[in-house]
Amino acid sequence: MASLQDIRHRIKSVKSTKQITSAMNMVATSRLRHAKEAALANKPYAEKVVQVVQQIAATAGNDFSHPLLAKHEDGKKLILLVTSDKGLAGAYSSNACKAAEALVEDKANTPMVIVGRKGTSHFKNRGYDVVKSVIGVSERPSFDLAKKLADDLVERFKTGEIREVQMVYTKFISAINCEPQVLKLLPFEAEASDGPVTEYIYEPDAATVLGSLLPQYLYTTIYAALLQSAASELSSRMNAMSNATDNAEELISKLDLYYNKVRQAGITNEITEIVGGAEALK
């Protein structure tokens, strides 16, 4: 049976852990509000850009050619993965890594561009071909970062080194729910719309407008994914720290009960010894 001193040390240790998890929960909750607002504010614009580009691509016709529409027979598949820089966020990063691993054809010949320290260390330690990593921005992504990532992907794609680019990020659904998503970035493929089609007036023509919008489409799509992932990371951390705080409270309650039982058992033994000694002196 553990001594009272050992139990007191254990209770003190758990209380210290509870203070840390509670503080991290408060910080994540505060940051989540801003990240959620940014993701939700950007969502209508990102969706509209995709809609407009898809519509213009359908109007431009099959004769239109652009480097981002080219289909290469050879080349490798590149994976753009968005994870977190910090841990203590539940299964957020591991779920994104699993989704990325499912896309890998050959880990030695599937280049990866990774945002976040967790994804970078996960794949580098396992011998994957990580050609570029960005660290220190997962909670606060910027449009400039999205533009740099997109420009790098476009250059690799134009050379024919890459035949396809798939992006893995985590979609923010609610404060308690987020899901890994896979999106094909390159080559751009127009999708037929079943609903009503909006008619646009183009100047000078649809092909020229589409050529100018395709890079902007990439910037916007990647930036939206970064914002969604940032909100997902913070919500996952908030939930993980909230659960850890609740578990610490439950453990403290159990340890307090155990402490009282051990102390009561010690008092009972002392009384028994005193009574036994008194009986022996009679």
Automatic annotation (TrEMBL):
It comes from the Bacteria. Its main location: membrane. It is a peripheral membrane protein. The keyword Hydrolase does not apply. GO terms for molecular function: ATP binding; proton-transporting ATP synthase activity, rotational mechanism. One of its GO terms (cellular component) is proton-transporting ATP synthase complex. Keywords: ATP synthesis, Cell membrane, CF(1), Hydrogen ion transport, Ion transport, Membrane, Transport. GO terms for biological process: proton motive force-driven plasma membrane ATP synthesis. Gene3D superfamilies: 3.40.1380.10, ATP synthase, gamma subunit, helix hairpin domain. InterPro entries: ATP_synth_F1_ATPase_gsu (IPR035968), ATP_synth_F1_gsu (IPR000131), ATP_synth_F1_gsu_CS (IPR023632). The keyword Transport applies. It is found in: Cell membrane; Membrane. Produces ATP from ADP in the presence of a proton gradient across the membrane. The gamma chain is believed to be important in regulating ATPase activity and the flow of protons through the CF(0) complex. F-type ATPases have 2 components, CF(1) - the catalytic core - and CF(0) - the membrane proton channel. CF(1) has five subunits: alpha(3), beta(3), gamma(1), delta(1), epsilon(1). CF(0) has three main subunits: a, b and c. Belongs to the ATPase gamma chain family. This is ATP synthase gamma chain. It comes from Selenomonas ruminantium.
